[in-house]
Write a structure and sequence with these properties.
The chain is mainly alpha-helical. Helices cover about 85% and strands about 0% of the residues. It has one domain (about 1-190, about 200-400): MFS general substrate transporter like domains (Growth Hormone, Chain: A, Up-down Bundle). The longest helix is centred in the C-terminal third of the chain and has 38 residues, at about 365-400.
């Protein structure tokens, strides 16, 4: 059983890597393609926004679909939507249809929503609470090789399909989405929990009132909103600053490495130091992001900021995900996980949709101010949880002594 559990984690890690190869490519090219064929320059990041909307709309239905039919069925469904998405995106580039490009991004959101549950499937496979953070981080670590290899693959495909710019990127995304079916086919995950034996289900409002749940949700929101806001706008901002596509792609690659390389050890850090210390470390890196990005528009400014942003995302996302697994019973899994993904990506959709407008209308500094507000929010909520938890523990000790 233990070998099967570990095998599931590695298979999910491999499938995660294929997805990230497609996802980072989409981030790098969708706003640039949008700028070429959009009716208005301020709409260039709308495809990124539609991706996030697709995720937000899919998270809760997919969570209940997996509860009813199995995690594996949900993962296959998501990968199928990925194939549809990248096919539509290829057609949109050749035809110059901006709204089809947006529709393709919306479909990609279903694929990405299904991938979000890979980490929970891994945590459920290992069972032991202390090992959940490690399993979650190892799934994310599977993206590292994809981050390194994807740019070369995209470049080769783009050259092969010239003179149509960026068409090769969408063909590349189709191919890696197709490869994701291989590890998914070998998964041996626990079956869905049968009705009647999964335990007592509390009202969602009661679960959300817990400081621990609010902290986990806020960390998830902060991770995605801050990352999407800056990463969506970075290729355009760098273009406006005179930097070419290859340079901005390199910055995005560095950012994505920052997102996933820490996964090699972040789960172990959580097991060693506790989840809250890792969350506060994520906040510190977000502060470093804002400071670095405010210093100028050189390649080194963007690189330092986006690298720190990636590390911030990793600590907030893995830390928040690990904390979330401690807030619900088996009967509540689908709705709590679903609402966590929904809230994170609803806010991310707003961030992606507003990134281009903020950049064009108010400039790069306006994006940094929004991220500063996000940082303040997650810090206050997390501090409240820490204080309330210490008070609860102190009261428990006093009652025990009495």
């Amino acid at each position: 059983m233990l070998a099967t559990r570990n095998f599931n984690v590695w298979l999910l890690s491999l499938a995660q890597g294929f997805h990230v190869a497609a996802a980072m490519t989409a981030v790098a090219v969708s706003s640039l393609v949008g700028a070429q064929i959009a009716p208005d320059a301020s709409m260039a990041t709308l495809p990124n926004a539609m991706l996030t909307v697709g995720v937000a709309l899919s998270t809760i239905p997919l969570s209940y679909f997996m509860k009813r039919f199995s995690r594996k069925a949900g993962f296959f469904l998501g990968a199928f939507f990925g194939l549809l998405s990248f096919t539509a995106g290829t057609v949109a580039i050749y035809a110059g249809w901006f709204w089809l490009l947006c529709a393709a991004s919306l479909l990609q959101g279903v694929y990405q929503a299904s991938v979000l549950y890979y980490r929970f499937a891994a945590a459920e496979s290992v069972g032991e609470e202390r090992q959940r953070g490690i399993a979650i981080s190892l799934v994310q670590a599977g993206s590292i090789l994809a981050v390194i290899a994807a740019p070369a693959g995209v470049k080769a495909m783009n050259i092969a399909l010239l003179p149509t710019e960026y068409a090769g990127a969408y063909v590349f995304m189709f191919l890696v989405a197709l490869l994701a079916f291989v590890p998914l086919a070998f998964l041996r995950l626990p079956p869905p929990i049968e009705e009647g034996i999964e335990g007592i289900e509390r009202p969602l409002v009661h679960i959300l009132r817990q400081p621990k749940t609010l902290t986990a949700l806020t960390a998830n929101i902060a991770a995605w909103a801050s990352m999407v806001l800056l990463m969506s706008a970075t290729p355009l901002s760098m273009k406006h600053s005179g930097h070419g596509f290859d340079v901005s792609t390199g910055v995005i690659q560095l950012h994505v490495l920052g997102m996933y390389v820490p996964s090699l050890f972040s789960g172990f850090l959580i097991a060693r130091f506790g989840v809250m210390k890792i969350l506060f470390a994520g906040m510190a890196f977000l502060g470093l992001t804002i400071w670095s990005a405010s210093l100028g528009h050189g390649v080194h400014h963007y690189s330092a900021a986006l690298l720190a942003l990636g590390i911030s995302w990793n600590f907030l996302f893995i830390g928040g995900s690990t904390l979330l697994t401690e807030t619900y019973h088996d009967a509540e899994r689908a709705k709590v996980q679903g609402i966590n993904e929904f809230t994170g990506f609803t806010v991310s959709a707003l961030a992606a949709g507003s990134a281009g407008v903020l950049l064009v209308t108010f400039g790069w500094q306006s994006l940094l101010l929004v991220n500063l507000a996000i940082l303040a929010l997650v810090f206050v909520i997390s501090l409240w949880y820490v204080v309330s938890e210490r008070g609860r523990q102190k009261l428990s000790v006093m009652e025990t002594n009495d």
